[in-house]
Design brief:
There is one protein chain. The protein has one domain (2-284). Strand 3 and strand 4 (253-254) form a beta hairpin. A two-stranded antiparallel sheet has the order 1-2. The protein has a two-stranded antiparallel ribbon with strand order 3-4. The chain is mainly alpha-helical. The two termini are 23 Å apart. Helix content is 73%, strand content 3%. The longest helix has 29 residues, at 256-284. The model has no long low-confidence stretch (mean pLDDT 82).
Length: 286
């Protein structure tokens, strides 16, 4: 999840869905915003409050995300600059396979669920086509960025990193992490904590009360997000980048980027299928 969250266009929520921990993650985060938990903390019944939290699960996932962000941010930043087609191809394969895996969690497809998928698809497709803007570096805006990005990070198909790009703060925050700018990262962290606790209340309710239509909508988000992570692009100046179809030959020579991209796309696809298979076996063994 941490590695996915670093890359603009890829969602950590998608990885959570693939690995079979999505609903447990949302329900575990939701606990922090419940009246019972807040009441116990307010009355200093800390042992009671602690007992309500899915501690081992959240610590394991949280530690993995933090570790990935701290250790992989340099490598992914370098790889995106030097080998963009290879990186985007791998993540395109991941998300493409994720659409297949997540859609199977809908028990029975119908017109309503198809409509929800189409709405999610069109919404994500339009969102990822927006052009980044210039924004302030003020503390209040960094808090807002943290809140918005974390909500996206737990939505499959919507990348928190990409929303930071749209808000004009992706490079600023990535640099802050790499340079250990604790103050700036702290402001973003405050926003993230508030945003994820508040948003998880809504998402948990939707998954429990309207599971299939919610998953169908999330599937649409993932399909629409494929527009952003298509590996082959050309620069379009101030309007950003345009997706293009790759050519087999470039200036009379075989386009090696095409074949390396296809290879990494297939590897990414198979990684998801294997992970989903392992997760399913783990569920059956419980």
């Amino acid at each position: 999840m941490g590695a996915a969250d670093i890359v603009p266009g890829v969602s950590g929520g998608t990885m959570a869905f693939i690995l079979g921990i999505y609903e447990e993650l949302i329900d575990s985060i939701r606990t922090f915003g419940t009246a019972q938990f807040l009441g116990a903390v307010a009355h200093l019944r800390l042992r009671q409050a602690f007992a309500m939290i899915n501690v081992k699960f959240l610590l394991a996932v949280g530690a993995g995300i933090v570790l990935a962000v701290l250790t992989l941010s340099h490598a992914l930043e370098y790889a995106l600059e030097q080998y963009p087609i290879v990186v985007w191809s791998f993540f395109f394969g991941l998300v493409l396979a994720s659409v297949h895996v997540v859609s199977r969690r809908v028990r029975s497809w119908n017109v309503l669920l198809g409509t929800a998928t189409a709405i999610g698809l069109l919404g994500a497709y339009a969102l990822v086509g927006l052009v980044p803007v210039e924004t302030p570096d003020a503390p209040w805006f960094l808090v807002l960025c943290g809140a918005v990005a974390i909500c996206a990070m737990i939505l499959p198909g919507i990348s928190g990193s990409f929303l930071l790009v749209l808000l004009g703060k992706y490079e600023f925050i990535l640099r802050a992490v790499n340079e250990r700018d604790i103050v700036s990262v702290g402001y973003v962290g405050v926003g993230a904590v508030v945003g994820i606790v508040a948003f998880s209340q809504v998402l948990s309710w939707l998954l429990h009360k309207h599971h299939d239509i919610t998953v169908a909508f999330l599937t649409g988000l993932m399909i629409g997000s494929l527009r952003k992570i298509w590996p082959w692009k050309i620069s379009a100046g101030v309007s950003g980048e345009h997706n293009v179809l790759p050519h087999m030959f470039v200036q009379g020579h075989i386009n090696t980027d095409l074949f390396s991209g296809i290879a990494l796309l297939l590897i990414g696809f198979m990684v998801v299928i294997i992970l989903e298979h392992l997760a399913s076996r783990g569920e059956e063994g419980k």
